[in-house]
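User: Run a structure prediction on this.
Assistant: Running it now.
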Amino acid sequence: MDLVDLTADDPRLAAFHRGIYWDAFAKQYEPIESWQRALRGDDAYRLNIRVAIDGDTIAGGIAYELYPRSRCGFITYMVVAPAARRTGLGKRMQGEAAAALFADGAVAVFGEINDPRTTSIEGAEAAWARLERNQRWGARVLDLRYIQPALAPHLARDRELVMIALAGATPLPSEMSGAIVREFIDELYAVTEFGPPDPEIQIGERVRLVEMRR
């Protein structure tokens, strides 16, 4: 199965957006116009969208970003089509995306997933399974209150997520610098909402990286 990086004008971008991406993220989707603008280099961060092609079918896809001021990477969306699940595709896409971000100079790579303790978008069992899968792959949860900024005018801030750190070539430490996390979240809010982070987000000098359990 080939992994292909898409451009703003690639027709497969629209096929991915209205297909398996929409199926997975209909309640918190980004407009395709936002993707196209970022892929053309017109936003303050660098976006990459990579899809897995199986014949004529898009079997999976991942979107990830590099933020220049904080020098942090961010995996925003990943989805695997039902027919391609349990094949290792998700782990491959996420691992290669994180490796690419670290290779491009990222000091940390973050992601966000539904908090299984609070999510109303999916059942707790599905959310726990996703979190546990990411933790098996080496990710850890940042021990802080995380609130996703509004990603488009039609969306509200998402208060039902946890923020995760992804491992690179070596396992993650037990904690990381709060300054790295703070600078990334400040930049994320600045480019999405053009303002400061939600006041509920409080970050100390060090942030623990923990394995959440049921």
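The CA atoms of residues 32 and 101 lie 22 Å apart.
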